[in-house]
Amino acid sequence: MTTAEAAQQANRTERTIRMWCRDHDIGRRIAGGPWLVSRVALAMFLNDDTTTLRAYLAGDRRSARVSAYFAAEGLEELAFG
Predict the structure, then answer these.
(1) What is the pLDDT of residues 5-60, one digit of tens each?
(2) What is the C-alpha to C-alpha distance for residues 60 and 63, in angstroms, rounded to an integer?
(3) What residues make up the domain containing 25?
(4) Cα distance between residue 57 and residue 45, in whole Å
(5) d(CA 80, CA 15)
(6) Which of 4, 21, 55, 80 is the most exposed place for a label (fewest CB within 10 A)?
């Protein structure tokens, strides 16, 4: 999602979302372009679920804890695709 969408969902400013992307790895930039925020990582971060966020960032897509976030965001096909 865009930083604007993430800011609206998190009830924060876009600047805060960009800082979270940089500091907590919940988003990425490609070739210096705009930040794109992971819906799954943002949900984990907002839930203060650092254990699951670490697992997700390490590549886990199949554990029950991580896949539950994919399901909650309606992205099940991305977790197991």
Answers:
(1) 999 999 999 999 999 999 999 999 989 899 999 999 999 999 999 999 999 999 99
(2) 7
(3) 3-80
(4) 12
(5) 32
(6) 80
DSSP-derived secondary structure letter, 2: B
CA–CA distance, 60 with 67 (Å, rounded to integer): 9
CA end-to-end span of the chain: 19
Please state the domain count of the chain. 1
Compute the distance between CA of residue 5 and CA of residue 22 in angstroms, rounded to an integer: 17
pTM of the model: 0.90
Q: Which stretches of 25-63 are DSSP H helices?
A: 39-46, 50-57
**b/e per residue 4-26 (b: at least 16 CB within 10 A):** eebbeebeeebeebbebbeeeeb
Question: Distance between CA atoms of 78 and 73, rounded to whole angstroms?
Answer: 11
